[in-house]
Amino acid sequence: MPRFVAQPTSAGHLFSGRSGAIDARLQLPPDDEQAELARTFNAQVPLTPGRLIAAQPFFLRKPAQDFARATDCLAAAGYYEAGMGMADQRAVAQVILNRVRHAAFPATICGVVFQGSDRRTGCQFTFTCDGSLLRRTPSPAAWQQARRMAAAMLLGGVDPRVGLATHYHTDWVSPAWDRAMDKIAVVRTHLFYRWRGFQPFRMPQSGAEPDVALLAALSPAHALPGPTEADLQQSGAPALALPSSPARPAAAIPRDGTGGQVASQALAAAQVFLVTLPASGSPASFQALAERQCAGVNPCRLIGWTDPARTPRALPMPGSAVDTIAFIYERRNLTAIPRVRWDCALFAPDAADDCI
Length: 356
Hints:
Distance between the termini: 37 Å
Helix content: 25-40%
Number of domains: 2
Mean pLDDT: 76
């Protein structure tokens, strides 16, 4: 599988003329004459007339490991580009998703984010080549917030404010590349652009998500020689090969009071699994878990909670457990198409009938 090994550089002020590069840093603007001149120039460039067209929802339909890697690449871009602001992180994520769909860019999330990061002057996002990943580590809470944003965008979230933009920069720089582009949106201190004329956007997603060496410290999904199932679980990715035998006694299955480690009770008579799911996971990861756990079990139902205190130990479940179900997987027989539903207040809906 391809692997990106980004070589950090000592790059200073980027975007002085490098074609296509994105102004990645959202730090406080410099208070100097050059920055003020750039602001004045940028303010005089009008927005392109016409209605801003929002992107179509993006649904990443890839295996568990690819989903985990894509989530972490998108989360890293959101955090290092936009800091803690969720609205700014979504704008960054939308530009990346637009690039994935554009024929001029790589067809994977990680491929877009780390494009050119192995070349001293070729990175498209500053944080991938200026050493930020080595110098700054997000707090666990900030990282999980960024991952939740990323997962929501990969499951159909859309930021309509930036339309189909594939480029952006801060208002205190004035790169040469934006002269040949349409300015289509302004979000706080950032200006968003698209190329002029017809744009070859594609809908299919192709290729495996590469693992990125510089993300290994943040993401088990990007560590070599490949993540263990426990690591994928911890990162919120689907994995978790729970025992396929529904007769295993509940007392023998470990629980983690934090909710990070999956706990499952298999009820032999009802062929139901009651599971504590990672709050940082996604419906796609939960379905992958259910598919593995229900292998050979016919019929099969997996019901999940993100709060371990609410996960019941037996059926019938109490009302407090019923009211807090986060995910349900049901399959009537081995050849039937399973039905999957989840709490749309916790996870973005895929369709109207996906909600519990």
